[in-house]
Amino acid sequence: MAEEQEKVKTEGQEKVKTEEYQVTGEMLVAKIKEILHEGNIRRIILKNEQGKVLIEIPLTIGVVGVVLLPVWAAIGALAALAAKLTIIVEKVEEPQ
After folding, report:
1. Structural domains counted in the chain
2. Largest CB tally within 10 Å, which of 11, 55, 75, 80?
3. Using CA atoms, how far apart are residues 17 and 89, in angstroms rounded to an integer?
4. Using CA atoms, how far apart are residues 96 and 92, in angstroms rounded to an integer?
C-alpha cells in the first residue's frame, strides 16, 4: 500500500510541490507510470528503506518513449531487489 506525504516550496517564481510515496518493490513500476501520467513532473527520486538515494531521474518536457527505456530497466531491477522504497516526486505547480 502506498503512503503519501506532500510539501510545497517556492523557487523563484514557481512553486514546487514535493510528494513522497512509500511503496513495495512490486508496486514501484505501476506507481511511477501513474505519476508520469499526472504530468508537470520535474524529478523523481527513489530511496531505499535506509534513506539512501538509489536513482534520481530528472524529467524535462518531451522526455518520453525510447529515451526512458534504460531508466525503466533500472527501475525494474530496483523493484526486483528492494522490499520497500520511497518515491519522491517534484512537481511544478502552474501559476494561478
Report:
1. 1
2. 75
3. 8
4. 12
